[in-house]
């Protein structure tokens, strides 16, 4: 064999050995690269989740910063405005269901309540809006600290108004496992949902009659018990979810199930304005607000302050308002003669009557206070057939007039 042939054979063998060694090294290095890739993916996912949460926080801040239409500037809708004021004075009334024609400003009126809501004490940085003093309104972690006697840092914030969109998932409403902590820390943690955010606040559902049945069931459970229980992915948690439930909808698109309808303390009906003068005024006011919101709001500052002052006074007066036994008996007699199921009608009517008395600055409930709220509290509790429509309130007023000794014409 020649020298050149031997040299070629040696080079070929060396090259083959080099490829084998390189392959072995790559094989050994591959697991480390895989772990690095996993950590890289986790890091990327963590950043994505953080950025998404930050974007959601920024969006919420921007939404809060956007000017809302002044409550005092709303024309008409007296039933809805009065029902809203009663619920702000006494949140235990149980919320409002607003049904009316489309384009009548139902959502605008609801969102205008933000300016009227009082400040409340909450535990700082707690996503459940926990009360620093009431154990029934504390999240599990805060309740544990409270029982241990640990100091709780508090702050005063406005009552939350949380929108529940029709397309929301059950996980977003109730809460679910925190994926970021599960992937980055390997721990099971709960990520609160909208019900946690709405605790001690207002939960608003636009087009509530179009809400999916499974979400309706969730709202029924939480509204009835005041608690949200989550059992999923190895997580078991129960936190307070006491909120004022406000829903709006168009009756042409369908009615609510009687079970959900009964959970609303009051029911207001909105009609389209018919007078041309009022319609023109509404259009002009809305145009002025859209053109210059801040200037428009300044025009109604004094009216807004007057309403807020009156509400503050009414809330302070409410605990001292008394309901005479004679009026209590008559309220129950009205509910009995209307064949209202259960006792929720009696309870809500009594509470709303006390709020009405407090709003006019009185210490005792009168017939006029009951008259002002009885239709709002009972008209939606008369429907036995799910396919039937809600009475305008004529039947309620007839029975009220009979029991309280008034002529129906009065």
From TrEMBL:
Residues 92-274 form the AAA+ ATPase domain. Pathway: Porphyrin-containing compound metabolism; chlorophyll biosynthesis. One of its GO terms (biological process) is chlorophyll biosynthetic process. InterPro entries: AAA+_ATPase, CHLI-like, ChlI/MoxR_AAA_lid, Mg_chelatase_ATPase-isu, Mg_chelatse_chII-like_cat_dom, P-loop_NTPase. Redox regulation; active in reducing conditions, inactive in oxidizing conditions. SMART domains: AAA (SM00382). It holds the Pfam family Mg_chelatase. CDD domains: AAA. It is found in: Plastid, Chloroplast. SUPFAM superfamilies: P-loop containing nucleoside triphosphate hydrolases. Keywords: ATP-binding, Chlorophyll biosynthesis, Chloroplast, Ligase, Nucleotide-binding, Photosynthesis, Plastid. GO terms for molecular function: ATP binding; magnesium chelatase activity. Its EC number is 6.6.1.1. The keyword Transmembrane does not apply. The keyword Cell membrane does not apply. One of its GO terms (cellular component) is chloroplast stroma. It is an enzyme of class 6 (ligase). It catalyses: protoporphyrin IX + Mg(2+) + ATP + H2O = Mg-protoporphyrin IX + ADP + phosphate + 3 H(+). Involved in chlorophyll biosynthesis. Catalyzes the insertion of magnesium ion into protoporphyrin IX to yield Mg-protoporphyrin IX. The magnesium chelatase complex is a heterotrimer consisting of subunits CHLI, CHLD and CHLH. The magnesium chelatase complex is a heterotrimer consisting of subunits CHLI, CHLD, AND CHLH. Belongs to the Mg-chelatase subunits D/I family. This is Mg-protoporphyrin IX chelatase. The gene is CHLL1.
């Amino acid at each position: 064999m020649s020298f050149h042939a031997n040299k070629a054979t040696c080079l070929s063998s060396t090259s083959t050995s080099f490829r084998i060694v390189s392959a072995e090294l790559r094989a050994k290095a591959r697991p480390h690269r895989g772990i690095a890739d996993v950590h890289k993916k986790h890091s990327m996912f963590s950043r994505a989740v953080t950025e998404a949460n930050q974007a959601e926080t920024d969006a919420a801040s921007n939404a809060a910063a956007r000017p809302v239409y002044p409550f005092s500037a709303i024309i008409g809708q007296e039933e809805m405005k009065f029902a809203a004021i009663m619920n702000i004075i006494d949140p235990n009334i149980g919320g409002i269901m607003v049904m009316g024609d489309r384009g009548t400003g139902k959502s605008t009126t609801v969102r205008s309540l933000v300016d009227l809501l009082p400040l409340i004490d909450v535990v700082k940085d707690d996503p459940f809006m926990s009360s620093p003093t009431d154990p029934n309104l504390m999240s599990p972690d805060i309740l544990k600290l409270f029982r241990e006697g640990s100091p709780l840092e508090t702050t005063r914030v406005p009552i939350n108004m949380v929108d529940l969109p029709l397309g929301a998932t059950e996980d977003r409403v109730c809460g679910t496992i925190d994926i970021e902590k599960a992937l980055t820390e390997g721990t099971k943690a709960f990520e609160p949902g909208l019900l946690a955010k709405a605790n001690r606040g207002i939960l608003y559902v636009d087009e509530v009659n179009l809400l999916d049945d499974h979400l309706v069931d969730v709202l029924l459970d939480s509204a009835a018990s005041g608690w949200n229980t989550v059992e999923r992915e190895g997580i078991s948690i129960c936190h307070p979810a006491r909120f004022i439930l406000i829903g709006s909808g168009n009756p042409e698109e369908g009615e609510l199930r009687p079970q959900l309808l009964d959970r609303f303390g009051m029911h207001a009906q909105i009609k389209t304005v018919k007078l041309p003068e009022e319609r023109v005024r509404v259009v002009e006011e809305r145009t002025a607000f859209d053109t210059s919101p801040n200037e428009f709001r300044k025009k109604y500052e004094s009216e807004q302050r007057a309403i807020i002052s009156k509400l503050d006074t009414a809330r302070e007066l409410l605990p001292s308002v008394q309901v005479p036994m004679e009026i209590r008996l008559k309220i129950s007699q009205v509910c009995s003669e209307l064949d209202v199921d259960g006792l929720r009608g009696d309870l809500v009517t009594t509470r709303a009557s006390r709020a009405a008395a407090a709003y006019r600055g009185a210490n005792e409930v009168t017939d006029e206070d009951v008259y002002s709220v009885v239709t709002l509290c009972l008209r939606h509790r008369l429907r036995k057939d799910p396919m039937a429509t809600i009475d305008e309130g004529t039947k309620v007023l007839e029975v009220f007039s009979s029991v309280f000794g008034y002529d129906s014409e009065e």
